[in-house]
Amino acid sequence: MIALRGLTRHFEVGDQTVRALQDVSLEIPEGEYVAIMGPSGSGKSTLLHILGCLDRPTSGEYVLDGREVGSLPEGDLAEVRSHKIGFVFQFFHLVPRLTATANVELPMLLAGLPPVERRERAAQALLAVGLSDRASHRPNQLSGGQRQRVAIARATVMRPSILLADEPTGNLDRASGFEIIELIERMNLAGLTLIVVTHDQDIGQRARRIVRLVDGRIASDVRQEGAAGRGAAPPSPA
Amino acid sequence: MTLREYLAFGLQALRGHRLRSILTLLGMTIGIAAVVLLTALGEGARRYVTNEFMAMGSNLLIVLPGKTETTGSAPIIGGTTSDLTLADAEAIVRRSPRVRALAPLAVGAAKVSFGDRDREVTILGSTAELLPVRRLAVAAGRFLPPSDPERGAPVAVIGRTVQNELFGARNPLGQPVRIGDARFRVVGVMAAKGQQLGIDMDDVVIIPVASCMRLFNQRSLFRMIIEVTANSEIEAAKRDVLRILAERHDDVEDVTVLTQDSVLGAFNRIFTALTLALGGIAAISLTVAGIGIMNVMLVSVSERTSEVGLLKALGAKPRQILLAFLTEAGLLSAAGGLLGIFVGYLGVGALALRFPALPAQPPTWALLASIVVSLGAGLLFGVLPARRAARLDPVTALGSGH
Ligand SMILES: Nc1ncnc2c1ncn2[C@@H]1O[C@H](COP(=O)(O)OP(=O)(O)OP(=O)(O)O)[C@@H](O)[C@H]1O
Ligand SMILES: [Mg+2]
Q1: Which end of chain B, N or C, is more open, meaning fewer C-beta atoms within 10 Å of its C-beta?
Q2: Single pTM value for the model
Q3: ipTM for this model
């Protein structure tokens, strides 16, 4: 369960202050499927980074599963990222010298899991994204869609409760983009909270809930019936 | 993450830039090899000289004609010199109870011939005392007979090389040889001794000192070698010698007395300084190698900024990033260091093959220092880049490179 209250994020650039997020309050229950949309520069990525504990708010509260995480020290934030959060990026961010398996093993390596368990879980995760036969390939031997699947396997191998995706289809053709979205939607159906930043209306429309940002503020927050993903119970009116 | 996992991760990263890693490693290898080889050279030279001195005998005083300015290093002879004579030698033996034995020494070079063979040879003139004082040994026959040193008997003891060159397989004992214009009878052959302080002791002919001085028309001895009764008596014996000779030379102190220890000490200081200087030169190349590692690591960090961001997004703590990059730097320098020690030892081995007389061996301190320094340099010069990586802001780092 994610709860943001009065969240702001300011960047000091020279003597100017960029207000990337202003007074954002938002609750996202577990298992929710949210699309974050809005024009370029509206603060979507900034919000996602804060949700993923990669960045801290300038002010306001971020409570994750009952714990205030907005002001945790770097080491504790790393712990939260390691166990609760999976990231998928527009540019895949695979380590080029490592095989698909080794890339998927990375978060487990950092978390100190033993080698045998790492290998087993990496194999399972690759199987789940349909890439068992590419386990020992390096990123440059994979197509864009395949790379993004390795990234998804990596993001979910630690069994996080939240998957954050920043333009996951932004670098893919339409067909493979939809395959990727369908893949993570299936994971959402299995209980994973899914938060996707996208420019693409067709992809945004698939989410159960669409949060629109304009100039760092929430302009609208709507639930959609009949969407592809699993919806959580409607948010209680604030 | 365990140490093994850091090592594996670092190794993979280094393999990702194979050429660059090898070149960096090479820098460290050359630096360490230079330390090992150069200090081995210095140390070898020091040992060589020490061994030579020890082989000469112990508790020795060396008396040279002429007053020298002993400033700790090699003697420089100057001023007018009165002769150092056999009578002086005899007076010292008679008057100083601290002198166990005294071997006067005259030196010249002459053509030595037997039948139709001849050879240019160093001629040493001395007495029977030379044998014990210089720790020499006779292989066949006998040494110079103990007799009045003023009497120059026409007998000669020849070195191994002289024997081979002049007599071949024939027995030289009792044979006549011609040295310069005089005739001598061979009474003994020296045991092989090899080079000693620059003189090939196998390529000499030893004759009675008076014969030698007559042969070369010398009025002064080249030097006297005195063996003192005990090590603790060396300084007192030196004073005795100076006093006795001053009395005999009109109260002028016109000789120089070197103690073996002082000469050895001077040589030791010179060679230790030499070793240190060589080590210092090598250390400079080590520093260069260390900076090379830092440079490569800095490039590596800036190249892999987005990887650092990714690792952080995947839950890496700053400490893990720091250790990962430090391991990489440590691997580079440790591998370079080990390789350097190996190459250095190869060099030392080659040196030993080429110059068997030189006991070249890197001093232990140099080995320890090169291991510590190579690892230390890697870590020290790796800290800056690694800290830079660990402190990267994950969001900024992720965004870089696109
Ligand atoms: N590190 C930073 N320093 C200064 N300003 C920043 C920084 N990061 C973001 N901003 C500013 O904050 C605002 C929001 O940026 P953000 O990246 O969140 O937008 P976005 O909605 O993701 O845009 P896009 O759709 O183009 O990705 C922008 O005006 C941006 O310039
Ligand atoms: Mg963005």
Answers
A1: C
A2: 0.73
A3: 0.92
